Amino acid sequence: MSPTPSEEPAPPAEPDRRGRYHHGDLRSALVDTAIEVIAERGVRGFSLAEASRRLGVTVAAPYRHFADRDDLLAVVAIRAFGVFAAVLAGTLSEDATPAEQLAAMAGVYVRFAAEHRALFDVLFGAGLDKSKYPALGRAAEPVLEMFLAPVRSLCGGAPEAVDDLVMAVSATAHGHAALLLDGAFGTGPEAVDAAESRAARATAALVAGRAAMRLHGTMDG
Amino acid sequence: MSPTPSEEPAPPAEPDRRGRYHHGDLRSALVDTAIEVIAERGVRGFSLAEASRRLGVTVAAPYRHFADRDDLLAVVAIRAFGVFAAVLAGTLSEDATPAEQLAAMAGVYVRFAAEHRALFDVLFGAGLDKSKYPALGRAAEPVLEMFLAPVRSLCGGAPEAVDDLVMAVSATAHGHAALLLDGAFGTGPEAVDAAESRAARATAALVAGRAAMRLHGTMDG
DNA sequence: GTCTATATCCCGATAGAC
DNA sequence: GTCTATCGGGATATAGAC
After folding, report:
1. Which chain B residues touch A199 with a CB distance below 8 Å?
2. How far apart are the first and last CA of chain B?
3. Least CB-packed of A32, A102, B110, B192 within 10 Å?
4. From the CB of residue B72, how many other CB atoms can be counted at a distance below 10 Å?
């Protein structure tokens, strides 16, 4: 019989390379793998055990790098906010009115949810206690700021109006994204296109309607 | 020694009453208990084991009445649609314009999410596969129909415009509800009031904006 | 028919050995 | 840093008491 033991091909030459994560990259490998698993099974289908299995480590290994499952998900969420902000920033064009910018951003919001479903799922479906992860709140600020800029241009600085419109636009975008992921617009790329377009148009109508209502003095509450 | 055994007060007289569900009401008791548990811990915190424990029944008992956890949740979701439709119907007033009705319904949508959080949570946070529960889709139809009525009045029957506006209003309402439950409007009754008011105003602006854009011919895609 | 008892499997989490 | 071992809890399926 050959000296090969049972199922291990060539272990002697490289004590710490293939299939093992002994030198500190297990942490980032776990984050990547988490996103993979979540993309396949959703957040609620993600488990540390599954991620450990895919990386060839024991179920206890992740606890050297993360306090618990939510702690890992919080790191994924922080990365998600980073990607989200980058995607939003990529749509800014100088020769667009603030209203057009907001409409485009609402569309991109929806597209982000569809194309980075795993990340979006973690942001809004993981049930992370934000007060427990201050870094999460900090990671969200750039995103909020990107919505604030065009709204400030539109509202001229009135703080209450700014807050009002930012929330309305966010809710419009988020609602379209949530309904899309829920299947309300159908499935496939056409559904994403449709939802993106609808979100943009709804946002445009919202902004236009605000202006009209302000002109006509139809304001209460 | 008194004849009282150890911890059982009076078992001999009533063989099949207190603490037992031998006669067919375990099914409905499970639904009620599920709503209780979900209200306390959220959908993802609900388990058949916990419901069984509260009802004094074995973990296997629920499987006599429901195929699995999702099957029970689907029944809860069907009840949720019923309550939702009833709440929406309660807000209809004849002397309101279709636009005012839609705005009010968006507000009620948000209030329903807050006041019946368990039911709302099941509807949108349980991840139920709707294609697997046809009865769920049927239960949702009355709700959709309530939004369709005022929209038809507004759009004069153009099928594309009707679909467009229903989705936009739904998304606006849903977005506000989701952000409220996520804590974006703060916590407590004031947050609910604020979110309800914002959803109503955003819907009013949306409808007004649509009309304005149609007048000005600003329509594309 | 309804529930109990039981057994298997997966997951989260911790303690201690290497 | 990772592994082994282990505990508790939940989902699920089956066999059997009443």
Report:
1. 171
2. 86
3. A32
4. 23
